[in-house]
Amino acid sequence: MTIALWCVLAGGLMPxxxxxxxxxxxxxxxxxxxxxxxxxxxxxxxxxxARANNAQLNAFEVFPxxxxxxxxxxxxxxxxGTVNLIALLWVGLRLVYGFIYLADIGAxxxxxxxxxxxxxxxxxxVAA
Length: 128
Known about the structure:
Low-confidence stretches: none
Mean pLDDT: 96
Distance between the termini: 22 Å
Order of helices and strands: HHHHH
CATH topology: Four Helix Bundle (Hemerythrin (Met), subunit A)
Shape: elongated
CATH class: Mainly Alpha
Largest sheet: none
Strand content: under 5%
């Protein structure tokens, strides 16, 4: 399996990092009672916990384009080294994005998000 495909697995699991921060760090942690309706718990989150939940949601939102880009590049036999590099960069940017989101640095977060989007698009470009 290629590095890029391992990055697809990492990207698919990444939202769970942020949901862990949302549910188990901060002033109010998820309890067994809260776990009966965790979406209501997260809807009431504030501060860093709310930002972690937003990072989780965004991680789910950006993943399909990235995964499709990797699969397209792999299927069309794009240069593997380039595909691997772009995929690793995407994973790195997305990790930084989550931590910047937790730190509440909006402008930098948006720039990093844009970098991830460019990586996803680049996967299709190198496959063309």
